[in-house]
């Protein structure tokens, strides 16, 4: 095998490794965004439950209680 072929294989391997790292990073970002959305949803649900317990109206109509 020539040095040129070795270099091409090493470059190809380096490209694959770099692409894999990029995909993993994107996957991690998507996971973090999903967790953030879940946490926000949980906070909103807790706030709604707290409002119900306190007797606040839950609908978007001021002065009207469900």
Explain the layout of strands and helices.
Elements: H1 3-54
Task: Give descriptors for this structure.
66 residues; mainly alpha; rod-shaped
What does this structure look like?
By secondary structure, the chain is mostly helical. The chain has a domain at 20-54. Helices cover 79% and strands 0% of the residues. It is rod-shaped, with a radius of gyration of 26 Å.
Mean pLDDT: 88
With helices defined by DSSP (H or I, 4 residues minimum), what is the helix count?
1
For the largest beta-sheet, the strand count, sense and barrel status come to: none
Poorly predicted sequence stretches spanning 5 or more consecutive residues: none
Gap between N and C termini = 79 Å
Number of strands: 0
Basic shape:
rod-shaped
How much β-strand is present in the residues?
under 5%
Helix/strand/pairing category: mainly alpha
Specify Rg, calculated over alpha carbons: 26 Å
Return the string of H and E elements: H
């Amino acid at each position: 095998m020539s040095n040129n072929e070795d270099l091409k294989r090493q470059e190809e391997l380096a490209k694959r490794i770099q692409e894999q790292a990029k995909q993993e990073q994107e996957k991690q970002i998507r996971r973090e965004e999903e967790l953030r959305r879940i946490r926000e949803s949980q906070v909103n649900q807790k706030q709604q439950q707290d409002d119900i317990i306190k007797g606040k109206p839950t609908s978007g109509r001021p002065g009207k209680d469900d």
